[in-house]
Structures are given as C-alpha cells and as structure tokens.
Design brief:
Blueprint (H helix, E strand, L loop, with lengths): L2 E5 L3 E6 L5 E6 L21 E2 L10 E4 L2 E4 L12 E5 L3 E7 L2 H6 L5 E9 L2 E9 L6 E3 L1 E3 L2 E3 L12 E4 L5 E3 L17 E3 L5 E3 L10 E3 L6 E5 L5 E7 L3 E5 L8 E8 L18 E3 L4 E10 L1
Antiparallel strand pairs: 1-2, 2-3, 4-12, 5-6, 7-8, 8-9, 9-10, 10-24, 11-23, 12-22, 13-22, 14-17, 14-19, 15-16, 18-21, 19-20, 20-24, 21-22
Pfam families: Aldose_epim (PF01263)
InterPro entries: Aldose_1/G6P_1-epimerase (IPR008183), Gal_mutarotase_sf_dom (IPR011013), GH-type_carb-bd (IPR014718), LacX (IPR037481)
GO biological process, one term: carbohydrate metabolic process
Length: 296
C-alpha cells in the first residue's frame, strides 16, 4: 500500500491507498496531530469511508430483487485498495470501481471517487458516486473521522465539549446492542438538552453506542477544549450524522460522522430500495456530496 502527502504552510495531510483513508492531519509548523492513530487497543481505523452502506443491516443481510445479500457493518470500501486517480498541488483523488468481488455482495456496477482538497486550514472531503450501469443503484455513504480528544495530553476528555450550529436540544435515535435503531417509543428517541449551547463529553455519553442525530438538526459540529475554544469543526449538508467513541473504553478520541444513510431499524423488514435515508442513483447519473474539516 502506498501513502501520499498533501501539504501547505498550515497543515500536512497523510493518506493511504487502503480505503483512500485520511490518516493524519498535522500542523505543519508545530507538529501537533489532530487525528486518531489507529491503536487497535481502542479502534484500528482513523477516518474510513462508509460505502455502500452506513451502519448495520438487520440480520447482516439485505434483499434486492428477490435475492438476499450480506454485507459487513459500513460496507466494503474501507477495506479495499483504491487507485490514485489525480494529484494536484492542493488535492488528491482516489478511485474504487466495482469488480467481480463486489458484485457478489452488492449487485451494482459503480465508480467511487474520493477527493481531498486542502486550502489553508480546511480539508474538503468530496464523495462522487457514478452509476455506469443500466439500472437504478441504491446505496448509502458516510464519513467516520476520529479526532483526538483530549487534544492536549495534560487535559481530561471529560472537560471537553461539543458545540453545534443551533442551541436546540438534540433528538437522538438510540442504537440497540445489535447496532440497529431502537423503535420502542418508550426508549427512543432521547432528548438531550444543551448547556449554554454546548454538550459536555461526560464519561457516560457513549454508553449506548453512537448518538444518531437525524432530520437535519445541525450542519456543523465543533470540538472544544476545556476553555471552550474550538480546535476541530466538521461542517456538512448531510441530513444526519453520528457522534461516537468506543463504548466504556475511555478511548482518547471521538468521531464526528456525516452520513447519507444509516443502520436499519429493529422493525425494518423492507428491501434495499426502501432502506431509511438511502439514496437512489439513476443509470448514468452522478451523486456528489462533500463535508469539511477545519482545524482551529
């Protein structure tokens, strides 16, 4: 696997062909690192792309045109090698195409391009999904970047905060032990009030797995140090997103995950075409979305 670098006077980015994964965001001047380091004691990944599904399938399977298929959580793209498609002074583009291997578990021809663009202290991550086939294509896609928290070794994570672009209380869809959205109305959704517009990162915030936040409640999330200064901001147009850190591990990172799609619900009995928050792409068409990571 090859690695690649994008660099300017502010930030240095490191990438791998494996999953087209962004593996480091480093301050060029100070050497301070902002992304998680993939220590497998907590989590072996850094910022995988989630495709062609986001989250878990009910019973690990889905149905399409009368046939059942199986996919692992978050799909296969994060575990496949991409080709470097294009390199410019401030951007890198990676390509993954369908193959006999992918068609066995996901019966759609596709081209997935992931483009990273670095301008000053902002990284733009662009997903471009192309449907070269003759039928409509059904898919989900999402990001899963993990940011160091605490960012300073002398701090405690429980003194940090999330901030959002709205002060409205957060409506969270609860996730079951099987990684599915809880549909028991007495348990989900959960309403979390903000404190002066902030959500403290307490030690029990992720006891029930990820916080799944649907219905366009927010479009920007920042991580704040104990003195309430933002050091990472993720901005997106996605209709839903997740906040996550490994359950009850005291892991020194948190993820801010823009999603176009999510895991199935506990009561889901539909086909691939009817998955909640899924996307449909007609033959010959292109789906293009992006999100940004701003440091400082």
């Amino acid at each position: 696997m090859s690695s690649h670098i994008l660099k300017n006077e502010e930030l240095t980015l490191t990438f791998s062909d494996a999953g087209a994964e962004l593996q480091a965001i480093t301050d060029t001047k100070t050497g301070k690192e902002y992304l998680w380091n993939a220590d497998p004691a907590y989590w072996k990944r850094i910022s995988p792309v989630l495709f062609p599904i986001v989250g878990n399938l009910k019973n690990k399977t889905y149905s399409y045109q009368g046939q059942n298929y199986s996919l692992p959580q978050h799909g296969f793209a994060r575990d496949m090698e991409f080709a470097l498609l294009e390199s410019t002074e401030n951007s890198l583009s990676f390509l993954l195409e369908s193959s006999n291997e992918t068609l066995e578990v996901y019966p759609f021809p596709f081209q997935l391009i992931i483009r990273y663009t670095l301008i000053k202290r902002t990284v733009t991550v662009t997903w471009e999904v192309k449907n070269p086939g003759e039928e409509s294509m059904y898919f989900s896609i999402g990001g899963h970047p993990a940011f160091l928290c605490p960012i300073n070794p002398e701090d405690k994570q429980t003194d940090y905060y999330f901030s959002f672009d709205s002060n409205a209380p957060i409506t969270v869809s609860k996730v079951s032990e099987n990684g599915l959205i809880v549909t028991d109305s007495s348990l989900s959704p959960v309403i979390i009030p903000l404190q002066d517009g902030l959500l403290p990162i307490d030690s029990h915030l992720f006891d029930d797995d990820a916080l799944v936040i649907e219905n366009n409640q927010y479009h920007s999330v920042s991580l704040l140090t104990p003195d309430k200064k933002p050091y990472v901001t993720v901005a997106f147009d996605a209709p839903l997103f997740g906040l996550w850190s490994p359950t009850k591990k005291n892991a020194p990172f948190v993820c801010i995950e823009p999603w176009y799609g999510r895991c199935d619900s506990e009561d889901y009995n539909g086909t691939l075409e009817n998955r909640e928050w899924g996307n449909v792409l007609e033959a010959g068409k292109i789906f293009q979305k992006s999100y940004t990571i701003t440091i400082g």
